[in-house]
Amino acid sequence: MTAYSASNDNDHVGASPENASGISKWVKRLEIEKGSDGLSAAMTNVDLLPVPPEGRTWVFLTYVLFWFGECASVTSWTVAATGVKAGLSWYEAWICVVFGHWLVAIPLVMTGRPGATYHIPFPVIARASFGIWGSYWPLINRNAMTIIWSGVQMVTTGNCFYVMLHAIFPSIAHIPNVFPKDVTMHTGRLIGFILAWICVIGCAYIRPQKLSGLIIIKSGIMMVCLIIFFAWSLVKANGIGPIIHQGASIPKGKSHAWVFLSNFFIQAGNMATFATNNADISRYARKPKDALWTQFFGMPIAFGVIAFFGIFVTSASKVIFGEVQWDPNLILDGFLTQSYDPKTRCGVFFIALGFSFAQVTTMIFANLIAAGNDTSAMWPKYINYRRGAIICMIIAFAINPWNLTKTSFAFTSYLGAYQIFLSNIIGVIISDYFFVRKGNYDIAGLFSTSHTGTFWYSQGWNWRAYAAYFAGIIPVFPGFLAQVGVKGVPLGAQRLYIFALPVGICVSASVYWGLCMWSPVEGMAHKGTTFEGLVGQYDYDNANDSPHGASTVEVSDKKV
């Protein structure tokens, strides 16, 4: 057995700076210490190595509550209500939410399997199929989406903070606006955004394996807030509102069937990010099965429950305000605008407080973990989980994310467009793990830059993975161009684009498998190979517990 050891108790760096001077001295101080057990310093830090047994704290119930906690957020609410605003009836929108997420649950649990089995994150898994250096492109793709999602969810989180502050300080709504009229951000809301941003930055200092208890707390708080908000909205509307009673109202010139299909796959595409890097969450599983059925059933059911609340409150908003409001923060703030009495202020404050807490924890699990791992893997020598998460949050602020959320359609357009770059990564990873290698990873090889290593391929790049990646993009690329505003794209190509997620996954997976059959890779399974037969040959224990005198690599990253 090969054991890998990590220590988090020492606050020191990888090279002594005593003899260094000037810039080199400060560069040395930024280094994260590495060991030398044949694992490349360019490929390794404590956040990328397999999670040790004591860190595998997520059990069956943790994953069930994780998805209810993750879905029980304001962001998930707004995505669910998008179908109603697109013209679908409430039950059609609800069907899209539930079954769209069930569709994407299939690749989601498949990409999570290697993480739950070997306890390694997505960036390391990507090395197995794309190559040691070739894995950087998938990381860049996933990180780009993480930044977009972080920005979008930070706007929502900031609005929660703003509504909470508005319930206390009425003057915050009347602060002179420093933004142009065509910008959706307001000075008062910017204050909420900055406060929320600071809170999320602070959370980057907490390691994910220590947050399993937070999942239970978040789930309870958010569900209580949702039920109270739901009941309050129905009381103010004297019922469930007209949207529940009305049928579909498809915009003129659009096909009902294609609007339905479009929304169905928008819901699936909405989870393309999670389906890509589910291993970042599943790696903390006590056992692989703890992260399997709990996610396959738990995720779509949880989204269905939250969609129910979102759609009904959206319907009630039509009666309360005279127009449909798909953002629960606007609904709560509207309550204050209608009546700024003590009871309303108290009710809005506590609901907004619960929403704020839930959104901050959503930022941790949906964005900080992915950002920390992905960015760390791009430059392990200098970037650990904390630094990677903070870098992502700084960029997410810099892109002015409020411009992405002007309308529900603008929001979902960004979600849908990027799935063509992620679905092909998903397909290659699934094909490599389940069909090419039958679940057998050479763990040491995933951290080695040796030219004879299992995953070195051709100068660190696996051309088969890239050929499959681009093969999956080609069929839906014309539709993508139409999505971003290019004129003259045939209607058939635009409609094929709706199926970008399953097309990308299936095409890239099939092409990758075919190329590996034609040009076999090292470590490829053969007839009779046991599925995940190498599991147990590699483990990650404390140095003092390493069996049989196994060599260890010491890693410390207490440095921020």
Give a topology summary.
Blueprint (H helix, E strand, L loop, with lengths): L1 E2 L18 H9 L29 H12 L2 H12 L4 H29 L3 H9 L5 H33 L18 H17 L8 H25 L19 H14 L2 H5 L2 H4 L10 H29 L6 H11 L3 H37 L6 H14 L9 H29 L26 H11 L3 H7 L7 H8 L1 H19 L19 E2 L21
Parallel strand pairs: 1-2
Helix pairs in contact: 2-8, 2-12, 3-4, 3-12, 4-9, 4-12, 4-16, 5-16, 6-7, 6-13, 6-14, 6-15, 6-16, 7-14, 8-12, 8-14, 13-14, 14-15, 16-17, 16-20, 17-20, 18-19
Describe, in plain words, how this protein is organized in 3D.
There is one protein chain. With about 550 residues, this protein is mainly α. The protein has one domain (about 1-550): Hydantoin permease. The protein contains 20 helices and 2 strands. It has a two-stranded parallel ribbon with strand order 1-2. The longest helix has about 35 residues, at about 340-380. The protein is globular and about 70 Å long. The model is unreliable at about 5-15 and about 540-560 (pLDDT under 50).
Summarize the structure.
60% of the residues lie in helices and 1% in strands. By secondary structure, it is mostly helical. It has one domain: Hydantoin permease, CATH 1.10.4160.10.
Any idea what the CATH architecture is? Orthogonal Bundle
**Strand order in the largest sheet:** 1-2
Number of domains: 1
What low-confidence regions span 5 or more consecutive residues with pLDDT below 50?
A: 5-17, 540-560
Helical content class: 55-70%
End-to-end Cα distance: 32 Å
Largest sheet: number of strands, sense, barrel closure: 2 strands, parallel
Supply the CATH superfamily name. Answer: Hydantoin permease
**Total DSSP E strands:** 2
CATH class: Mainly Alpha
- Class per helix and strand makeup: mainly alpha
* Quaternary: single chain
- What's the alpha carbon Rg, rounded to whole Å? 24 Å
Note the run of SSEs as H and E. Answer: EHHHHHHHHHHHHHHHHHHHHE
CATH topology: Hydantoin permease
* Percentage of β-strand residues: under 5%
Number of helices: 20
Note the overall shape.
globular
Overall average residue pLDDT: 84
Transmembrane segments: 58-79, 91-110, 116-136, 148-169, 189-206, 213-235, 255-275, 296-321, 348-372, 384-404, 416-436, 466-484, 496-518
Protein name: NCS1 nucleoside transporter family
Organism: Melanomma pulvis-pyrius CBS 109.77
Subcellular location: Membrane
